[in-house]
Amino acid sequence: MAHHQEQDNVVLLDFWPSSYAMRVKIALAVKGLAYECKQEDLQAKSSMLLEKNPVHKMIPVMIHNGNPICESLNIVQYIDETWNHEPLLLPSDPYQRSQVRFWGDYIDNNVYRIGKKVWTMKGKEQEEGKKEFIECLKRLEGQLGEKAYFGGEKLGYVDVALVPFTSWFYTYETFGNLSIEGECPKLVAWAKRCMESQSVAKSLPHPHKVHEFAIQFKKRNALE
Q: Which residue from 63, 86, 121, 187 has the least number of CB within 10 angstroms?
């Protein structure tokens, strides 16, 4: 089942501020895979995107030897199974796998949705969003516990699922007037540990660049 890299043609349909696409970039970097990255304009989606992901019409889409794989965590699992050499992102034990998938789903169902309230809403909705956001992060911090990474001693699936959102932390803090480090110091320490990995560091945009994007987004969508 081992793959020879030279036969593999990998294309990523990307939108650089997307935390979901960042997950795929980290997984590809962890495996040492070369790929072509195509930026999508979400206001004017390419025919390729519409063809390769006709159901959701969303990025990221990874095209491996012509075959599209959609949904970021699904793609991360695919990468781990296809290039099944070390480092592995998912544990081999079925019970452990079920647990990391559970937390991946928890992140998918909560972090982006709640975080969006923090940086796009005002007044009461924003205050509720902030409270909900910190509760969500604290729950994740509780799951991290005293471990170096969610996966234990090394970067794993849950780390890859969550760490891209940390590039948005500065944006949440600035617009939401909150201190994530003040509320969740262990989670912020974990994020810094993750950033020591080249695979993570080179896959995440600078938080200030994300913040600039958020400012422009709010102006464009009259959310100011």
A: 86
Q: 30 in helix, strand or coil?
A: helix
For residue range 139-167, what is the model confidence (pLDDT) as tens digits? Answer: 999 999 999 999 899 999 999 999 999 99
Q: What backbone torsions phi and psi does residue 86 show, to the nearest 5 degrees?
A: -65, 150
Query: Domains of the chain, with CATH numbers?
Result: 5-82 (3.40.30.10), 94-220 (1.20.1050.10)
* C-alpha 45, offset from chain centre: 21
| pLDDT above 60: residue 1 | no
Q: In the block, which residue shows the tokens 């995440």?
A: 204
**What's the pLDDT band for 224 if we cut at 50, 70, 90?**
low
Largest CA-CA distance found in the chain, in angstroms, rounded: 54
Rounded Cα–Cα distance for residues 144 and 141 (Å) = 5
